[in-house]
Structure to design on (223 residues):
């Protein structure tokens, strides 16, 4: 995948914004090694507000004008399915991808109902069909936290870990340290509580990714 720079801290991967941050301020992974559940103010130094990409979202999904809220619609759009769009699963990727450095964003799931998936994925995640190769968290190209009914799980490559938060999750924080291979999830509904950390050697730019069962999911603007 080719990448060019606009000189303003963003790289463009095939026309999609790829944000970079300065990885030299501290050693990779230092933040989580010293504090597995750090103060939210520490992570807000790396705050991002990724917007969602309408070219990737399933035809039954609807996107707000600011591209920060996606919700389930009653009817799908007509016409041919764009090549980048998920054609079977109610999934969507962000326009912004992260290829290096540290990044933190939050996801509001309080209107998402009984089922939702929040995570990150490579652009190589399959868009056609509903097989494991296309499902968020069920392959090597994606990582996610999932809620279904009253259960919470962390998923990657078909492997899952049960999570037991003290209360229902309304808002998640997601922290990525690309060089350190860290993708960490936090409950930021009230205070900050660590939920799960994936560790991997990332091979491609990562895109924030969502999947819906019903309702709506939003990405809040961070300071």
């Amino acid at each position: 995948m080719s990448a060019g720079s606009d000189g303003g801290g963003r790289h463009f991967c095939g026309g999609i914004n790829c944000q970079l941050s300065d990885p030299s301020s501290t050693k990779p992974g230092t933040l989580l090694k010293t504090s597995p559940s750090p103060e939210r103010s520490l992570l807000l130094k790396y705050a991002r507000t990724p917007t969602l990409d309408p070219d990737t979202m399933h035809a039954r999904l609807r996107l707000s004008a600011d591209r920060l809220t996606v919700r389930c619609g009653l009817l799908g759009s007509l016409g041919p399915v764009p090549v980048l769009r998920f054609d079977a699963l109610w999934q969507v990727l962000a326009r912004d991808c992260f290829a290096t450095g540290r990044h933190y964003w939050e996801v509001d799931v309080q209107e998402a109902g009984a089922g939702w998936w929040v995570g990150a994925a490579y652009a190589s995640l399959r868009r056609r069909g509903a097989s494991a190769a296309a499902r968020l968290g069920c392959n090597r190209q994606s990582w996610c936290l999932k809620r279904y009914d009253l259960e919470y799980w962390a998923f990657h490559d078909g492997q899952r870990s049960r999570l037991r938060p003290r209360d229902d999750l309304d808002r998640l924080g997601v922290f990525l340290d690309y060089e350190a291979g860290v993708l960490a999830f936090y409950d930021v509904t009230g205070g900050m509580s660590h939920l799960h950390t994936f560790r991997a050697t990332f091979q491609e730019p990562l895109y924030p990714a969502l999947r819906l069962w019903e309702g709506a999911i939003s990405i809040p603007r961070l300071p």
